[in-house]
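JOB MANIFEST
job_type = single_chain_structure
chain_count = 1
residues = 449
[input]
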Amino acid sequence: MTDYSRLVKAYDIRGEVPTQFDPVIAERIGALFVRLTQAPCVVVARDMRATSPELAAAFAAGANSAGADVIDTGLGSTDYLYYASGSLDMPGAMITASHNPARDNGIKLCRAGAAPIGEGTGLESIRTWLETDDMPEPVRPAGTTTRRNLLGSYAAHLNSLVKVEGDRRLRVVVDAGNGMAGHTAPAVLADLPVELVPLYFELDGSFPNHEANPLDPANLVDLRAKVRDSGADIGLAFDGDADRCFFVDELGLPVDPSAIVGLVAARELTRHPGAAIVHNVITSAAAVEIVREHGGRPVRSRVGHSFMKARMAEHDAVFGGEHSGHYYFRDFWRADTGMLTALHVLAALCEQHRPLSELVAAYSRYTASGEINSEVTDAAATLNEVEASFRGVDGATVDRLDGLTVELGDGRWFNLRPSNTEPLLRLNVEAADKTAMTELRDRILAFIR
């Protein structure tokens, strides 16, 4: 018996194939997705995993059986699926397990216009229906599936949103990690002033070179070396379904994602003066300062795409960024797209002649710890104890928007929040310099551990 509480997660559906997730379940989810959305037509895309074609076909068959037509757009990144959902104004399903190991697969779902489906917006209904074996009766005759390749129009749309131009030609290393950027990057970058240096573009869901998770520094080692060895101006690293993008400068050094938030926010505020910019609770204070300095309105959010997208809609924000490498754009149906973010950074480079390290230095003002995980027996009790130890400290402000955030002045702050799925507390610390950051980090870790 499949444990649907483990398969259907807060933001998507993800599990090991075939022990947790198989074509039979995918077909049921396809039918339930039509029940949830009441859509006469849905759009589907898939990643390069060995199990994705069969799962995509099963999902489509389920949707057809429930009375919906299906547009199968074939191989694509998750933001390609969001483009399809937005441009066609249809609910969509992306067959992917993102950066998970090769044995896993899953589905990311959205409503028409790429509106997210997660916990609280419909995914819990699908979980309940699966658990109770509550399958819908078809409301229409069985639908049909047609194939349509949207890669060219996806690439054209992204390039219509950002113009990468100037008298500077860039050498760009792209590490696709054998994931979907190996399929989408050549199409998006083809006509730009860019010499593309590909790294692991072969689509291979077994991930033979390294995990397709650039959040782990170990998976940036090859990209960093290639940037240095090839004399490149920039390196781009995408995760398996290519919705996240991380950056490496010309020295082979990783760029702080919060600096990218600040850089893109400044660009978008030039086009949309006074607009709101959404950031999550672990984004650097530098990004918040930069938004204000450029006349924008910073809006805090909980970590996670469903919360970010909801805050963007609430405030009509033009852009949103997370430290995890997810970046959201109002012009892209408020969906996250690593490729559009990459175009913004390439455009910023092309418009001047400084190296990337100097360009992003203006957006990096503090020293961060990075995310540190600690296993605890009672996350809620530990959070309460940490809060009590800091509440009342001179100058300290405390909030519980997402876990516990404490601001101590002099550029010092930390956020401690529980994992959704594991008995872990995740700590992020920032301060004006390394000494102050280390002192605060070690003080909190000593208390937790």
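[summary]
The chain has 15 helices and 22 strands.
The mean pLDDT is 95.
exit_status = 0
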